[in-house]
Amino acid sequence: MIVVVSCGAAKRAGRHRACDLYTGQYFRAAYRWATSVTSPSNVYILSAKYGIVNAYDMIDSYDLTLGDPGSVSPNRVREQADQRGIASVSPVMVVGGTRYVIMAQTVWPTARAPFGKGGGLLARAGIGYQIQDRKSTRLNSSHSSVSRMPSSA
Prior knowledge:
Blueprint: E1 2-6, E2 15-17, H1 18-21, H2 25-37, E3 43-47, E4 51-54, E5 58-60, H3 74-84, E6 92-95, H4 98-105, H5 127-132, E7 138-140, E8 145-147
Parallel strand pairs: 1-3, 1-6
Antiparallel strand pairs: 2-5, 3-4, 7-8
């Protein structure tokens, strides 16, 4: 299993490991949840600038949102997943807003978004809805049972 976490707008200045660059509350909670359900080496971040990065990749701070001019394209994300050998991994969980979940779907059509409307297959719910939905319930997939993010994030 891998978990893909969307990047965040709040960042430290300079160059950092990807898991340390993003400082927003949502990203921090999502990353903590991801590392609670799989090894940190199986956690990837979908960066609006860099695409798929491992949590420990060193990257520079930037100011882009997915969909902005200059942001990563779906084709580039597919290429990166192939290069990293993760394009055919299953299961895949995606934690992020609608655009990030849709982008992840271009690589992993059966990915699950565990938070949001119904918590089902690629639940396309915005960050606000996901934050409201972080209750202590379970998502059952055919491969595993995954706990929801704690509401005290």
